[in-house]
Design brief:
mainly alpha
Length: about 120
């Protein structure tokens, strides 16, 4: 297996794991995508930006499957869309200016908080 094929296999595995997590939990694939993308050679900031890019189609596909089965609540759509839009804009601006060490620390802190929230 060539190095290029090996890298493509790693990225395919990354996508598969991210998709499974997103499909099972209705989100959260980005928490897996970022570290997995880094394992395939992406730099910290590129991994975060790429994770955002790939989560959109995965989330849309997952939503369609949930929608078909009747698992949805449109009452949260508008407020959540506003929050995600504003947060995404601010986050993208911050990602450009923050050092990678800070980005890594904030991301790790958010993962820790999310994990603790799930246990409690």
């Amino acid at each position: 297996m060539t190095e290029r094929n090996f890298l493509e296999s790693k990225r395919l595995t990354c996508g598969l794991l991210t998709g499974v997590a997103n499909g099972l939990f209705g989100g959260g694939g980005g928490m897996l995508a970022v570290p997995l993308l880094q394992k395939t050679g992406y730099q910290e900031k590129s991994a975060h930006a790429t994770a955002i890019l790939v989560i959109l189609p995965v989330s849309l596909f997952s939503f369609l499957l949930y929608f078909i089965r009747g698992f949805y609540d449109f009452s949260v759509l508008i407020p959540t869309a506003i929050g995600v839009t504003v947060g995404g804009f601010v986050g993208a601006k911050l990602l450009q200016s923050l050092p990678e060490k800070i980005v890594r620390a904030v991301f790790a802190g958010l993962q820790l908080i999310a994990g603790l929230f799930l246990f409690l």
